[in-house]
Amino acid sequence: MLAERLPSVLPELPDDAAMEVTSLHSIAGLLPSGGQLIRRPPFQAPHHTATVSALVGGGSGLARPGAVSLAHRGVLLLDEAPEFDRRALDALRQPLEHGRVRLARSRGTAEYPAQVQLVLAANPCPCAKPAGDVSCDCTPLARRRYLGRLSGPLLDRVDIQVTVRPVRAAELVQVSSDGEPSTVVAGRVATARAAARERWSRLGQRSNAELPGPVLRRPPWCLPGPVIRELRARLDRGSLSARGFDRVLRLAWTIADLDGRQRPDAEDIREAIGLCTGEAL
Asked: Could you tell me the CATH number of the domain that includes residue 20?
C-alpha cells in the first residue's frame, strides 16, 4: 500500500523526463489514449512469476522494454520479492547501477533508460507470520533460506531497509490526526528535489541519486572528517561496501534536503547508516 502511494508524493515529470517515459510506453504499445505526455511518475508492479524478459526487457526480434524501463522516472514494486526467480532479480543489478538496460538480440541491440525507485517487499518467512509469532512453524534455517533468495549484491543496491512491524488492534481502530496527507508530503519532497536540482545543475545532474560517488568524496562536496567518522569506521570494518559508503552519503544529503538544511551533519550520517543497514526501526 505504501509503495502504491509513493508516486503520489513525487513531483510531476519535467518535459524531458515526460518525453522519455512517454516514448518508452509508446514503444511497448502501452501509450494512454489521447496521445498526451505522461506527466505522473509511472508505477509498475509485475507478478512474482515475471520472467527476466518481463522485468528487464526482451522478446523476439528487436527487444522491447521491460517493467524496469516502463517504471523509468517512477516506482518499480516487487511484492513478495523472495518469490521471484533469482535470475530475474539479479538481472536488475546492472540497470539499478547504471540506470540503463542494454539488450542484444539477433536483429540488433536496444538500449532503454531505467532510472527507477525500486521497492522490494518481503515477508519474514514462507508462512508470512511475524517474527516471534508462536503459530509460525518455520525454522531459523527456513527463514534464512527464504530471505537469502535476495542476493547480497542486489541488496547492496538498495538504499533503505526497513522492518514494518504488525499493526496492533488499538492502533488500527484509533482515530488519530497525527498523519500527514500526501499533498503535504509532496510539497516537502518538491522543495527537497528543487534544492538538489539547483545544487547539482552545474554538474549536469538533477537529483542526489544520480550523482557519482567520487563527486561526494572530493572538495567542495566532501563532508568533514568528524561528520563521516562513523561511516569510515563501518567501511574499514567491512560492514559497509564502497558502494554502500556512497549510498549512505547520497541518502544523508537527501535527509538534509528534506529538513531544509544546506549540508548533512553527523546525525544525518547516523540516520542514513541505520536506514541503509536496516538497523533503524
From this structure: 3.40.50.300
